[in-house]
Design goal:
The protein has strands at about 10, 15-20, 20-25, 30-35, 35-40, 50-55, 55-60, 70-75, 75-80, 90-95, 110-115, 130-140, 150-155, 155-160, 160-165, 170-175, 175-185, 205. It contains no helices and 18 strands. The radius of gyration is 18 Å and the shape is globular. Helices cover about 0% and strands about 35% of the residues. It is mainly beta. Strands 6, 8, 10, 11, 12, 13, 14, 15, 16, 17 and 18 form an eleven-stranded parallel sheet that branches. A three-stranded parallel sheet has the order 5-7-9, with no helix packed on it. β2 and β3 (about 20-25) form a beta hairpin. It starts with 7 loop residues before the first strand and ends with a strand.
Length: about 210
């Protein structure tokens, strides 16, 4: 498969590692990019921290076990894309659709996620602790064993999600909506810890 790279805008430092087998030395000062299409491609085990993804369209591609720390995603459509065991710590993701993508066991600790669509996405066993989420949509998403400890979640919607065994210790929800969600968490229940759900939308319809 051929990956189409246009409008190169970002630099890889030193070298990158693809599939853990071959070292590719940096050939150009403008290696990464914007305004491109990445389909049916594999970037497994890539070392690519501090990368900008702007106006990227991706489908059926994989970034499994890659290091994308401190990366910036803006105005992207990355559907059916795998980020399994991917290191996304400190990432900033804004105005991006990640529907039907797989973030199982990914590490998004201390990331900022604003105006993002996670519909039908798999975030089971992912780490979002100490992260900040604002205007994020989770619909028919798998959130089992998700770690949201210490996270701040504002203006987010959770609909028809699997929300079992989620770690909500120290999390704050503000103006969020839960609809048809099985709510079994590892955090203290709302009756014992009312501060956790102090700002939960009054129309919340949790099940569980």
């Amino acid at each position: 498969n051929t990956t189409n790279f246009k409008g190169l805008t970002k630099t890889f430092k030193n070298k990158i590692y693809i599939d853990g087998q071959k070292d590719i030395e940096k050939k150009d000062d403008n290696f990464w990019q914007s305004n491109c299409s990445i389909n049916d491609s594999s970037f497994k085990n890539v070392l690519a921290d501090n990368i900008d993804f702007i106006n990227i369209i991706s489908s059926r591609s994989a970034f499994n076990n890659a290091s994308l720390k401190n990366s910036f995603f803006a105005n992207c459509r990355m559907h059916l894309t795998d980020f399994i065991y991917t290191d996304l710590r400190y990432a900033y993701i804004v105005c991006t659709s990640l529907s039907q993508s797989n973030f199982s066991h990914s590490n998004m600790t201390m990331s900022k996620i604003h105006y993002v669509d996670f519909c039908n996405a798999n975030l089971s066993n992912a780490l979002l602790n100490m992260s900040k989420l604002n205007h994020v949509l989770f619909a028919s998403s798998n959130l089992q064993y998700l770690n949201l400890s210490g996270a701040t979640i504002k203006n987010c919607a959770f609909k028809d999600c699997r929300f079992e065994s989620v770690n909500l210790s120290g999390s704050i929800f503000e103006n969020c909506v839960f609809e048809n969600v099985k709510f079994v968490t590892t955090a203290t229940n709302p009756e014992a810890d009312p501060e956790l759900f102090k700002y939960l939308d009054v129309h919340c319809r949790s099940i569980g």
